[in-house]
Specification:
This is Glycoside transporter. Keywords: Cell membrane, Membrane, Symport, Transmembrane, Transmembrane helix, Transport. It is found in: Cell membrane. This protein has 445 residues and is mostly helical. It has a single domain, classed as MFS general substrate transporter like domains (Growth Hormone, Chain: A). The protein has 16 helices and no strands. It starts with 6 loop residues before the first helix and ends with a helix.
């Protein structure tokens, strides 16, 4: 087995995250709108479906993490799940966007079951895919590079859907056609499944698992005895709301505030430019400043870049798009820094507890992502209810102002809120270096 991560592995890992984020973004951006405006499910009911299913599914993530940590096969701990699960999640995605033309009660029941199934299968893909990054190399710098490429790939996946998703819908009949969502879901799902499957086929696991069988009860110590991980997860729970809220409200915003769904393309362009610039700038920033300081600074500046278009943007689309890009730039920085810090907490676990627990660490991360997504949808559902939103009706000034508040000021508050937990993150750059030295010495014995 080669000791260095090959170019092919870097490409397919990035591609796997691209496919995964295509699925997640398509679901996040369109499922609520599909439920309310196409299937006719009341906004409050639709939000309850998404929130309840997401919370239930999120609670299964730590279980999936512990299952992967106990997996031993000739393909490794994480790769086996990437060989069969992608096609199951693709089928579940298509199922979520099918209009069976049944009664309102049965429609709600089918929506609940299909979305719950989707979330469970997404976990089976998501946890092993991210955990793979922690065992793909023994070199921390190389792992960070792989994670950065993965995050860039994931961002491109989000961008493809943000820009191309609405174009797909328009090509198949527009955002008011149920068939447009179904055909778009089929295309997105097939591409995503193949991308994730290739990651499972071509990747290698180079960090050998411990020969010791770690019981579930002991494996849980990876979470509750790892204080840096707990503080990081608390911060991620809040900052993930920035993306979650924007993805869920975006289509409503461009349709009812800007008056044209095609503006979603311009939002996608501002996202790709901002996020990619932020992600590519992060390694250099980390070479000059501590991870903690870079994270805090990106949150402060990200918050400011959300407030400015709310106060001064009015209906100036170009001005607002520019500040969208700026805020996405700081989001890109926070994403890379927080993922690098997550990898450090795995090394910290091995140093402090004697075992790494990659699966459960990354499963808690996906738990936080899903729980945050559930909270985002709850916020959106409650906001639409408070704003007296009625599907397919002309927008009132009150609705437009309320959508702008949700689109800009709520993310600004979340940026600032994410700083509070990270103030207690205790792994300094000096300690991280010492941890790596101690681990190398221990492994050499």
């Amino acid at each position: 087995m080669t000791t260095k991560v090959t170019l092919a592995e870097k490409v397919v890992f990035s591609g796997g995250l691209l496919g995964q984020n295509m699925l997640y973004s398509f679901m996040s951006m369109y499922i609520l709108f599909f439920y309310t405006d196409l299937l006719g499910i009341p906004a409050t009911t639709a939000s309850v479906i998404l929130v309840t299913a997401s919370i239930f599914d999120a609670c299964l993530d730590p279980v999936m993490g512990m299952i992967t940590d106990k997996t031993h096969s000739r393909w490794g701990k994480f790769r086996p799940y990437l060989l069969f699960a992608p096609f199951l999640i693709a089928a579940a995605t298509v199922l979520c966007f099918m209009d069976f033309g049944t009664s309102s009660t049965l429609t709600v029941a089918l929506a609940t079951v299909s979305y719950l199934l989707w979330g469970m299968l997404y976990t089976v893909c998501d946890t092993p895919l991210w955990a793979l990054s922690s065992v793909i190399s023994k070199d921390p710098a190389e792992r960070t590079l792989v994670v950065t490429l993965g995050k860039i790939g994931g961002t491109l996946g989000t961008v493809i859907i943000t820009i191309g998703g609405i174009q797909l819908l328009l090509a198949f009949g527009g955002e008011r056609s149920t068939g447009a969502y179904l055909y778009s879901a089929i295309i997105v799902s097939v591409i995503a499944a193949l991308a994730i499957w290739l990651t499972g086929i071509l990747s290698k696991e180079r960090v050998a698992p411990s020969a010791e069988r770690i019981p579930f009860s002991k494996n849980l110590q990876t979470i509750y005895k790892n204080k840096p991980l707990l503080t990081l997860l608390a911060s991620l729970l809040i900052i993930n709301l920035v993306t979650g809220i924007r993805q869920s409200i975006q289509l409503y915003y461009v349709v009812y505030v800007w008056g044209d769904a095609s503006y979603g393309t311009q939002v996608g362009i501002s996202l790709v430019v901002g996020m990619l610039l932020g992600m590519t700038a992060t390694p250099k920033l980390l070479g000059a400043f501590s991870k903690k300081s870079v994270f805090i600074s990106s949150c402060i500046l990200g918050s400011l870049s959300c407030v400015v278009p709310y106060l001064f943007g009015d209906e100036n689309v170009l001005f607002t798009l520019v500040f969208f890009g700026i805020s996405f730039f700081f989001s890109g920085i926070s994403i890379i820094v927080s993922t690098s810090m997550l990898l450090d907490t795995i090394d910290y676990s091995e140093w402090k507890l004697g075992f790494r627990g990659e699966g459960i660490v990354f499963s808690t991360n996906t738990f936080i992502t899903k729980f945050s997504g559930a909270v985002s949808r709850l916020i959106i559902g409650a906001s639409l209810g408070l704003l007296n939103y009625v599907e397919n009706q002309p927008a009132t000034p009150g609705l437009q102002q309320g959508l702008s508040f949700v689109m800009f000021l709520l993310p600004a508050i979340c940026f600032l809120g994410a700083i509070i937990p990270i103030l207690f993150y205790s792994i300094s750059d000096k300690q991280r270096t010492q941890i790596l030295i101690d681990l190398e010495n221990h492994r050499a014995m």
